[in-house]
Amino acid sequence: MKIARYLYQKQIRYGIVRGNVIHPISGSLYETWEEAGEPVVAGDVQLLAPLIPNKLIGIGLNYAAHAEETGKPIPDEPMMFMISPTAVIGPEASIVLPNVDDRIDHEAELAVVIGKRGKNIPAERAADYILGYTCANDVSNRVLQKKDGQFTRAKSFDSFKPLGPVIETELDPSDLEVVCRVNGDVRQKGRTSDLIHSVPELIAHISSVFPLEPGDVILTGTPSGVGPLSPGDQVEVEVEGIGVLTNRVLGPLDDMAL
């Protein structure tokens, strides 16, 4: 089941996507809901980020090939960091580069959406706490990442966390293709079967530190091939079984002109 968050007739709603039609729902996405209201054609709505996360948790160096390209050792346990949820944007929204001097990279990722509160969750029960999955682009300022020695500022600028286009609730995350294309050229291609720490292991590890709650999002790491973005680029993140998340890239002066 694919769940979309969208703007239609000045109202933000959730709906179930079936083919080219979105069926509105009422109630809580994390508790009980039902279909209610007239279906709408997907082309008539503005798709938004499928949620604004409660907490946004990143995982670094979770593919061996990516760790190798950065010249860093593979972590013995998941390398966690926090990102501001205010960085989230949706499909077709613009990634705005704060400057054109720093190297700012794309990172295609599978994102996990938590659906139920849990603390100290065993890995074998992790699926019980997952609402679904979406695509993410973990846009990162490499200059600030190196300067700060940690990731929060480098990854939390407005527009640096595209999510979407939908939440897919019926998906096995163990072996999915993750692809990034920039201007139609493939930059990244990997499979979640190559994750150093699997989705259940990530949930177990994170929830041993603090509770996971409905609406939390975990970015699971990126394959090798990360590269810089430039104003005018169109970047696509595609995760098998979910869809394609597309965003254009603007420079700071472009943003001021909007």
TrEMBL record:
The keyword Isomerase applies. Keywords: Isomerase, Metal-binding. Pfam families: FAA_hydrolase, Rv2993c-like_N. GO terms for molecular function: acetylpyruvate hydrolase activity; isomerase activity; metal ion binding. Coiled coil: none annotated. Residues 55-249 form the Fumarylacetoacetase-like C-terminal domain. It comes from the Bacteria. One of its GO terms (biological process) is carboxylic acid metabolic process. The keyword Isomerase applies. Residues 1-50 form the Rv2993c-like N-terminal domain. Belongs to the FAH family. This is 2-hydroxyhepta-2,4-diene-1,7-dioate isomerase. It comes from Polycladomyces abyssicola.
